[in-house]
């Protein structure tokens, strides 16, 4: 058998390659592979399904991630995908494979975090699987949500002229990870040294205990705002904007000055000799929402807290560009996280 | 932190322990943890969700399981859980974590098997995740099905006097696995020797390419038969009957002469110096249906092919017993598969 390295395709290319020949035959399948979640028709309300797998040594490092935080985050990243469809999560299933180095007490910690997320987001744990693994911990979570059919928001609805909006702020989770990785390296070389997180609670918190933007979806409903396209920022602004532009068949112009970055993130980026905008564009794991709105809805967005207008959707031929604070136009590249 | 070995609780005990404090708050959650699948209310039709994780070195051995068969079986075992709710599967999501020893071609083989199962059972692949793992292959599949609310069949509906029914035949998958394991050991010791599967196509096929009993659920609908309780036989007849009895609050009497065992299974068991009924009771992986019916429905079942009446539900105080062909009463034990 030929041996083609999976790296040659990249994560998204690989999924696309493996799933392209699968037909959709069920009349209830409204959306299959390729958005934040799949959509199943159930009459006036649709069922929205999203799934994620987290693998020890790839997605998390138990050297600095407490199990309770890991449980919480594992749930939140899935709920974030449901919110990114403009839907509300209702149920989750949790499957765990773990080696015998994990005790009942360790699993209780993990499930305490899962429970805390269920409490915070009002979702029910309804099923799953617990099994052994020869090595390490793997967590697979599936979230099930609900949405009125006419309110579903896909990645493919952006049109030239639409405004690009971002919630919260970007780049902090990436820098939090850099800090934790640095302290781990120092500790490995000098086990006596206490970790110095430099009182960077904000960035570390964004990495270890992210939240999904349920509040935004609630605010959209209250203000009768329906985005034209939406995605959650899990791979970095650049990569996630590429998904919207590719599926909508558009280009985009992002203003660097419009990309929200927390002051602590700015400072920390400089300490790591990184450009803050690079962290926002390529960092990922922020779990904020990136969405586009009809320009007629601009007034509605202006009165909502924590939403920033960061640019405009263009024709596909105009490409996907960043206008820097210095006034230079840069072609954006979708780097994102490459796990392979 | 205290270190309690997970083996002290067992697989089912562990799930029960970890999930017992999770409240169900969503009005749409009709059934949470503890049946073949969770049930979500969507008006006249309910959504049924089941998830399973398969780990290399625990649930499968790529030394003798072809990747295409693995893909097929991974889907089938999930669909089997949906059928066991008296529901029809419609969609699946597939998440894969694999080490870099797997090539694109190997994944194509795996997905060819997944595709074949989607074709055979008319389900849509609607989502998933593909990621890297430091070691081995882990597959997590979630199946989503649909059922009219009044036709849902849980594990807890059996009543004393109900008849115990089994589809197909039991024990072959377990013996197929013994045969494959034996040939693997011989091959490891003498790499020159060709595997001798003794023309045991039936048992090997039942292990490598099981099917879910969609035909039975279709027959139930056609004949207006609604079982009072149902489960799929994944852990062995004894263990799965225990689940029904425990949740229904009943006992049971199984007639050894009523338990269907294929002639090839009988012969192969004897070659391995095993009692065929032990293979049926404790082997597992048959993916047949074990269900109970009201005695008034006995006539309906008699005219359906491939269903065997194997005993009767009793009061809880009567225990769970096997009446052997020799006329002895044995207390049944729920051994099942212990993976930890």
Describe this structure in words.
2 copies of one chain form a homodimer. Chain A contains 10 helices and 13 strands. By secondary structure, the first copy, chain A, is of the alpha+beta class. Chain A has 2 domains: 146 residues, 60s Ribosomal Protein L30, Chain: A (2-Layer Sandwich); 169 residues, PurM-like C-terminal domain (Phosphoribosyl-aminoimidazole Synthetase, Chain A, domain 2, Alpha-Beta Complex), CATH 3.90.650. The first copy, chain A, has a 7-stranded mixed β-sheet, sandwiched between helices. Chain A is globular, with a radius of gyration of 20 Å. The C terminus of chain A is likely disordered. At the A-B interface, helix 1, strand 2, strand 3, strand 4 and helix 3 of A face helix 1, strand 2, strand 3, strand 4 and helix 3 of B.
